[in-house]
Amino acid sequence: TGRMPNSKDGDDKPRLLLMGQKRSGKSSISSVVFHKLPPSETLYIETTTRIKKDSMHSFMDFQIWDFPGQVDFANAANLFDVDSIFNEIGALIWVIDAQDDYFDAIARLNATILNLQTTYPNINVEVFVHKVDGLSEDYKSDLFRDIIQRVQDDLSDNGYENAPVSFYQTSIYDHSIFEAFSKVIQKLIPQLPTLEALLNSLCANCRIQKAYLFDVLSKIYIATDTSPTDMASYEICSDYIDVIVDISEIYGWDRPEEEDSGGESGNQDAESLIRLEKKGNNYLYLREINKYLALICLMSEDSPAEKKALIDYNVGVFQEAMKQVFPR
Amino acid sequence: MSTLNSSKRQKQRKVLLMGKSGAGKSSMRSIVFSNYVAKDVRRLGATIDVEHSNIKFMGNLMLNLWDCGGQDGFMENYLHHQREHVFGSVAVLIFVFDIESREFQADVINYANIVSALEECSPGAKIFCLIHKMDLVQTKLRQPLFEERAEYIRAASESFRDSVDFFPTSIWDQTLYKAWTQIIYFLIPNASTIETLLQQLAEVIDARELILYERTTCLMVTHVTRGIEAQNPFTDRFERISSILKTHKQSIAKHTGIPAGSANFAEMQIKTGRFMFFITRLTENTNLAASIPPSEQGFNAARINILLARQKFAELDIATKARPGIQEV
Ligand SMILES: Nc1nc2c(ncn2[C@@H]2O[C@H](COP(=O)(O)OP(=O)(O)OP(=O)(O)O)[C@@H](O)[C@H]2O)c(=O)[nH]1
Ligand SMILES: Nc1nc2c(ncn2[C@@H]2O[C@H](COP(=O)(O)OP(=O)(O)O)[C@@H](O)[C@H]2O)c(=O)[nH]1
Ligand SMILES: [Mg+2]
């Protein structure tokens, strides 16, 4: 099943914990990524006073816990049941506001890491250096390096070398927050190597440049082939999903006439193709894989119209294999 | 051939874009006509005097847009020294009100001055008032506030009182497209001819819906909706589609390195168990979006029929150009 490794009991879904200073952007992140809130509307979000639990129901289930910024959970054992918070954890996401002083944020992050180190050494700590929109490129990369340096120095001063901490630059105003979440979630998917191998072979067989497996609702990609990824390819695929989802919503409404037709004349799984103008032959191809996932491919060479049969066949094989990996 | 060439004059339509400085005129223009995205407009400086742009629309319609800088000094100038020059032979006045303005009364007085200049120089013009930056108002307060403002402005519209149209707009959502679609529709000279042709095409290919839109701006020219599709609950779908396609153009431009003005897809198709949809080029300046029932056969036939219909739509443009008798300036 698509259950995560450290979730022993069936009903405990793995958790992504969002922590960090007040106003660092945690609630905004969770609203934009999991509730499709337009980024500009996060201005109206009020400060969080209690843990807010959201669950995401998709190819696998998990929960997102949004914490109030002002309370220190790892150190507040007397107030909170620390075990019940960190037990089923998938990842701890620590949000640092890049447009604000970050010394306190780093100090608290390190205290938390050191605190958890003994009891939960396997927790992935994911640091989002957030709100990097509006910062100049130079300033942004200096700041990013500075934060990484400080965290690592401080941890090793405390005798914790090579801590499992990863860093990302994020903003809710562009694709970076989705990219970062994709990478965080990929670490929690035990089947990732299988998925990558399947995508690699699909790419080789159909001469596909880049293939992504997307969770359609969240636009998080759960796997891609192992060729180098770049932000630009992710962006165009993610934007493409928006187009398909929006148009499908508009024209996929429940028409009273079609109650019993069962869609037998059309495709069972949605499929789409875009041919871009000029610039050689550029194609974008999308195929629904199951209720939650869609395959998106970037192709450049020969016209897929001609090798459509080949693609259909290989995607069919891929889809069958996927059923083994994610039965739902 | 010579008759065709000599009569290539386009139908020019003068459109004034006015309103207080900072109201959002240039932002709007840049997004609709120059492929800016909403967050780019922070880069725009104040408009000095008048910025002219000519926008070719539907082959035979040339929009002559006057973006008039709204600072007080310029306003004085338009109303006095340049009165006839600015307000003469205007087809449409678009007046933008900033919902956030602290001097609404003063804005309306300014508007009234402009209305009387228009009444004097172009009495046949049409006025559209856009109540802009509505995103800054809480959702539930938007409608009542909009109506209240619109009524107040209508009362100051003199002889345009019964014909002036109001739209709530924001560059952050599709309301911008809704307003501009209405404006363009008003300006298109041969809309009904186009609609007749489109209706015929829709019957031939058994389309549920056809949407004809201009390629650069993604603004809808017109649409045909048949049968059950008239009950489609998404009544704002036309401006939503404009907005979706416009955003997607940006995305393609970024990916291919082609400037956003010319970036486009040559074709798009979506096939599902509930509908089939495709977009393809129809004429030099227009694309056609078609939603049809889900059938592979129907899909292929529809594409071929649209290919065959292209010629007719192209001729439609030329025919209008070739008859100098019906051209106005
Ligand atoms: N510029 C920019 N602002 C952001 C970004 N993400 C969030 N913000 C803004 O940051 C402010 C605080 O966001 P919240 O999400 O409420 O912060 P929080 O971390 O949940 O705060 P507490 O609940 O008090 O702990 C809001 O005004 C957001 O609009 C971003 O990526 N860029
Ligand atoms: N919130 C909001 N701001 C807007 C909107 N449209 C424009 N603005 C902002 O208003 C300011 C002035 O816009 P500009 O187009 O230069 O005004 P102009 O002087 O009328 O041409 C800019 O900072 C824009 O970002 C809108 O719909 N909503
Ligand atoms: Mg919060």
Précis, in short:
In chain A, 36% of the residues lie in helices and 21% in strands. Chain A has 328 residues and is of the alpha/beta class. In chain A, strands 2-3-1-4-5-6 form a 6-stranded mixed beta sheet, with helices on both faces.
Descriptive overview:
The complex is a heterodimer of chains A (328) and B (329). Chain A is of the alpha/beta class and 328 residues long. Chain A contains 8 helices and 11 strands. Chain A has helices at residues 26-35, 82-86, 103-119, 137-157, 176-186, 192-206, 231-251, 308-325, and strands at residues 15-20, 52-56, 62-66, 89-97, 124-130, 165-170, 210-215, 220-224, 271-276, 282-288, 293-299. In chain A, the strands form 2 sheets. In chain A, strands 2-3-1-4-5-6 form a 6-stranded mixed β-sheet, sandwiched between helices. Chain A has a 5-stranded antiparallel β-sheet with strand order 8-7-11-10-9. In chain A, helix 4 (137-157) links the parallel strand 5 (124-130) and strand 6. The longest helix of chain A has 21 residues, at 137-157. Chain A is globular and about 60 Å long. The N and C termini of chain A lie close together (8 Å). With 329 residues, chain B is of the alpha/beta class. In chain B, helix 7 (175-187) packs across helix 9. The longest helix of chain B has 27 residues, at 296-322. Chain B is elongated. The A-B interface holds A 38, 40, 173, 232-233, 235-236, 239-240, 242-244, 246-253, 255-258, 262-263, 265-268, 270-279, 282 and B 39, 135, 172, 208-209, 228, 231-234, 237, 240-241, 244-245, 247-248, 251-252, 254-258, 262-277, 291, 293-296. Strand 9 of chain A pairs antiparallel with strand 9 of chain B. Bound molecules: guanosine-5'-triphosphate, guanosine-5'-diphosphate and magnesium ion. Residues 19, 21-27, 41-42, 44, 46-47, 70, 132-133, 135-136, 170-172 of chain B line the site of guanosine-5'-diphosphate.
Give the topology:
The complex is a heterodimer of chains A (328) and B (329).
Chain A: E1 15-20, H1 26-35, E2 52-56, E3 62-66, H2 82-86, E4 89-97, H3 103-119, E5 124-130, H4 137-157, E6 165-170, H5 176-186, H6 192-206, E7 210-215, E8 220-224, H7 231-251, E9 271-276, E10 282-288, E11 293-299, H8 308-325
Chain B: H1 2-6, E1 11-19, H2 25-34, E2 50-57, E3 61-68, H3 72-79, H4 83-87, E4 92-98, H5 104-121, E5 126-132, H6 139-155, E6 165-168, H7 175-187, H8 191-204, E7 209-214, E8 220-225, H9 237-256, E9 265-271, E10 276-281, E11 286-292, H10 296-322
Parallel strand pairs in B: 1-3, 1-4, 4-5, 5-6
Antiparallel strand pairs in B: 2-3, 7-8, 7-11, 9-10, 10-11
The complex binds guanosine-5'-triphosphate (GTP), guanosine-5'-diphosphate and magnesium ion (MG).
